[in-house]
Amino acid sequence: MGTHETAGGRPTRSTRRTFLTASAAATAATVAAPLAASPAAATDTVTPPGPGHPVRPQPPDRELTALLREIDRDRIEATVRRLAAFGTRHTLSDQNDPVRGIGAARDWIHAQLTGYAAASGGRMTVELQSYVQQPASRIPTATTITNVVATLRGDTAPDRVYVITGHYDSRATDVMDAVSDAPGADDDASGVAVVMELARVLASRRSEATIVLAAVAGEEQGLYGSAYLAGRLKAAGVDVQACSATTSSEAARPTTAPATRAPSGCSPRVCRRPRPRPRRACGSPSAGRTTRRRGSSPGSCPTWHATARRGWGSG
Questions:
Q1: 23-77 confidence digits (pLDDT tens)
Q2: Do residues 211 and 164 lie in contact, with contact meaning Cβ atoms separated by under 8 Å?
Q3: In angstroms, rounded to a whole number, what is the distance separating the alpha carbons of residues 20 and 186?
Q4: Integer-rounded Cα radius of gyration of the chain
Q5: Which of 103, 108, 134, 238 is exposed most, by the fewest CB atoms within 10 A?
Q6: Least trusted range by pLDDT, from 142-156, 159-173, 182-196, 278-292
Q7: Is the pLDDT of residue 277 over 70?
Q8: Residue 81 has pLDDT above 50, yes or no
Q9: Alpha carbon distances (Å) from 246 to 2, 122, 194
């Protein structure tokens, strides 16, 4: 994690909890863009409508500052510990055991998000988005895969959508071992904890655009849950302006390094924009922003390149 200087000049080591808090704050700052525009935005020059234009830095307004202050690192840590306590969250693990396995984790996440949604006055809805995955790579038998999705509907531009995901399934060294302990604290209970914390702090706030916060499953077996989420969004014709995957391993990677695998929750169906409009690269908690790629081709997008071989075509 590295070290930094304290006020007294003594070096201290950054902790995982500090890193996760910073990730949550950075992601919150990213998704806060759809919130009511800040006073500083009024003086900006007019930019063309639609996706693909650069995001210009601006001082946070009072609402954003208050939101960032509400990010609770103790709550994030408690969520990570609770998810790890389910023993394993393997996609092929027991879905009916109330204590251990992916089913128990799914139900707990759903209950927590439903509780947060109560503060939204009906603007946030929570659903279990399930489908049956037929036998495929790393899926030996027909398996129900369930995403837990919280949607905060926007007030003035609800058709403009931002998607944030983390995957709640885990794995042991043997990707087909659905029995052994696989606590998955940093892959990806930490990412799900950030998603859940964002749901908590955003639920009581109004947003111009719609924000989708999803805990997806099936990532370790092959991005199945996120592919299904992406397919649902595409089929519904949703205008996804940006997506961000809170996978801690991706967040820890320097933003200039090329991706070696697709972040969970992002796919060509979500992240690619139709030609000839510029395509947005997937944001990350560490970047705290979504950037564009001018004139990018499908093969130049790391997310598309890593996932296209799954047969998702041209999106």
A1: 565 565 555 555 544 444 444 456 556 666 777 888 888 888 899 999 999 999 9
A2: yes
A3: 10
A4: 19
A5: 134
A6: 278-292
A7: no
A8: yes
A9: 21, 26, 7
Residue 292 to residue 153: CA distance in whole angstroms: 25
Q: What is the DSSP string of 246-269?
A: --HHHHHS-TTSPPSSPPTT--HH
DSSP 8-state secondary structure symbol assigned to residue 23: H
- Residue ranges with strand state E in the chain: 3-5, 11-13, 124-133, 143-152, 157-167, 209-216, 239-245, 279-280, 292-293
Q: By the 8 A CB rule, do 194 and 245 touch?
A: no
* Rounded distance between C-alpha atoms, residue 212 and residue 164, angstroms: 6
Instruction: Report d(CA 110, CA 106) in Å as an integer.
Output: 6
Range 15-34+61-310: architecture per CATH: 3-Layer(aba) Sandwich (3.40)
- pTM for the predicted model, two decimal places: 0.67
Closest CA to 184 of 307, 288, 79: 79
Q: Is the dihedral of CA 66, 71, 73, 75 positive or negative?
A: positive
* SS3 state at 136: strand
Identify the helix (H) or strand (E) that includes residue 170.
none
Place of tokens 């924000």: 211
Read off the tokens for 212.
């989708």
Under 8 Å between Cβ of 129 and 146? yes
Determine contact, residues 105/168, Cβ cutoff 8 Å: yes
The three-state secondary structure class of 104 is helix
The tokens for 308 are 């296209």
158: how many CB neighbours lie within 10 A of its CB?
16
Centre a 10 Å sphere on the Cβ of residue 171 and count the other Cβ atoms it contains.
22
DSSP state of 186: I
